[in-house]
Write a structure and sequence with these properties.
518 residues, 4-stranded antiparallel sheet
Length: 518
């Protein structure tokens, strides 16, 4: 349909006309008009829209055209639909004008925009497909699925995962080597108990993972990180294991170089050590096919840890470990005699979701969405802040925006005054690497880790001999906001960035003055 047309209708009997004009697909024109009405504030948050039949009649459109437009805008986050209350403008879709907000402590405590990494937009969870899988799974479930759970996990899901991981990630494993857990953190906790310490870990990584290991008496020693990933040449015979993110180093964004992938496997074979591969977003590579898992090089010396937290939702609490044969029994024993962590019905549902092809479709959908988000981030920075750049490969749910030296802290403070939640790259630097490279630094790692984490660093031994210079940057979680909120979040990010020529490379500039009261 390519004809040009104009039509309008009264919304909710008000004086606000909804005009559709232009050439092209009528559903797309309707969606554009509704987005613009919400974006401009003509449709306020919470406003109830007319039933799609009524709007279709007013505009002279087919009912399915309006129904499909509503459904798509609900998926994007512009609208919200609840049974019994109709379709309304989503609360998060309100136009944001931070310059008119007073500077108050509440603004800092309750950010308007969220670019913190770590989770997909919860509004895109595939509810309809998940419900269909749940119905099929429950109808076909054997009686023993409703009894005490096997700590290995449901065999249906382990079979489905074995096939999926072999096809998509190059993993070599039978279902018998897969043990289900409630997520990557649970898997690390079990491995810490079974393997013991000390471990080596990438100098940049999740503080939560280091603190979790420390709480189980496993100290971590930092390995330098550069454009080729972790400096695995720093591993020693004293290390019992090494925790890596080879497909997409977290958070700096580079893949582990092929020579280093081979070298870390050689280290494990020579020393009896263990490579723990956190495959947290291995399916999300945008510029080419994802690189296969390191586990495929040597299944007897590499543990692959994964979950559905990035591909579906962290609320599901389903993860997995693909283990060397010698570790299966000890890990299951550490887990306990019965399954206590993951619901058997959700495991069965996920098994059907994978086997039916719905999981592949969801990953493809999210890959396209996240790639578009990353492109929007790169384009916005190129246009408004060309002196900063996005580093790392085109992959995952986050990117690092590299800043001029000495400007990270001021940028985080400026973001807070813009109502934007975003984290500095320094928050992810291993405290041992900080001490080795340039002394103490106040960061989230120190605040959260406390004395226990410092003790674990000392217990792990000296840091890598090569210092790990800190790189100023922001870790931007571009997958987190709803579709309607993302442009405003990017705008707030651009307003928070330091100028091209900061006053000093060592002294960070003061945060911007508070906006004037309206």
């Amino acid at each position: 349909m390519t004809d040009s047309w104009v039509n309008s209708a009264e919304i909710l009997g008000s004086d606000l006309p909804l005009e559709l004009s232009g050439t092209g697909n009528r559903r797309a024109l309707l969606m554009d008009a509704l987005r613009e009405a919400v974006r401009s504030g003509r449709l306020a948050p919470g406003t109830r829209l007319p039933p799609y039949r009524s709007l279709a009649a007013d505009l002279g459109l087919a009912r399915n055209t309006v129904a499909d437009a509503y459904a798509e805008l609900v998926a994007e986050g512009w609208l919200a639909a609840r049974q019994g209350s109709g379709t309304r403008v989503a609360e998060r879709a309100a136009p944001v004008t931070p310059v008119h907000r007073p500077r108050t402590p509440e603004r800092v405590a309750r950010p308007v925009h969220d670019l913190v990494q770590g989770q997909p937009d919860p509004s895109v969870f595939p509810r309809t497909a998940w419900l269909a899988s749940a119905r099929r799974a429950l109808a076909a479930a054997p009686d023993d699925a409703f009894g005490p759970g096997d700590p290995h996990g449901r065999p249906e899901l382990r079979r489905a995962l074995a096939g999926y991981l072999a096809r998509v990630r190059g993993v070599r494993a039978s279902p018998e080597r897969i043990v289900l857990c409630s997520g990557a953190a649970h898997g690390l906790r079990l491995l810490a108990e079974v393997v013991g310490g000390p471990w080596a870990a990438e100098a940049y990584g999740l503080p939560f993972h280091r603190e979790l290991l420390a709480s189980h008496g496993v100290g971590t020693r930092p390995l330098g990180v550069d454009a080729d990933g972790a400096r695995v040449d720093g591993l020693t015979r004293r290390d019992r294991a090494v925790l890596l993110t080879p497909a997409h180093q977290f958070p700096t964004g580079g893949p582990l170089h092929p020579a280093r992938r081979a070298a870390v496997v050689d280290w494990a074979r020579a020393t009896g050590g263990l490579v723990v591969e956190d495959d947290y977003d291995g399916e999300f590579r945008y510029d080419r096919q994802p690189v296969g898992a390191v586990q495929g090089l040597d299944p007897e010396h590499v543990v692959l840890v994964g979950s559905v937290s990035k591909s579906l939702s962290p609320a599901l609490r389903i993860g997995w470990m693909v283990l060397p044969q010698r570790l299966v029994a000890p890990v299951v024993a550490a887990k306990g005699e019965r399954e206590q962590f993951s619901s058997a019905t959700e495991q069965l549902t996920l098994a059907d979701f994978i086997e039916s092809g719905a999981y592949d479709r969801q990953v493809r959908r999210m890959r396209q969405r996240h790639r578009r988000r990353r492109d929007q981030l790169v384009d916005a920075l190129h246009a408004r802040a060309p002196h900063v750049r996005v580093t790392g490969i085109a992959a995952g749910l986050h990117a690092v925006v590299e800043l001029p030296p000495g400007t990270e802290r001021s940028a985080v403070r400026a973001a807070a005054w813009q109502g934007l939640a975003v984290e500095g790259l320094g928050d992810y630097l291993h405290p041992g690497a900080e001490h080795a490279s340039r002394g103490p630094r106040a960061s989230r790692t120190h605040r959260a880790g406390g004395a226990g984490n410092a003790d674990a660093v000392r217990a792990a031994g000296p840091a890598d001999a090569s210092p790990v210079p800190h790189r100023d940057g922001l870790v931007v979680g571009y997958a987190t906001p709803a579709e309607s909120a993302y442009p405003e979040a990017l705008d707030a990010l651009c307003r928070s960035l330091p100028p091209a020529d900061p006053p000093s490379a060592t002294a960070a500039p003061a945060p911007p003055p508070p906006p004037a009261a309206p």
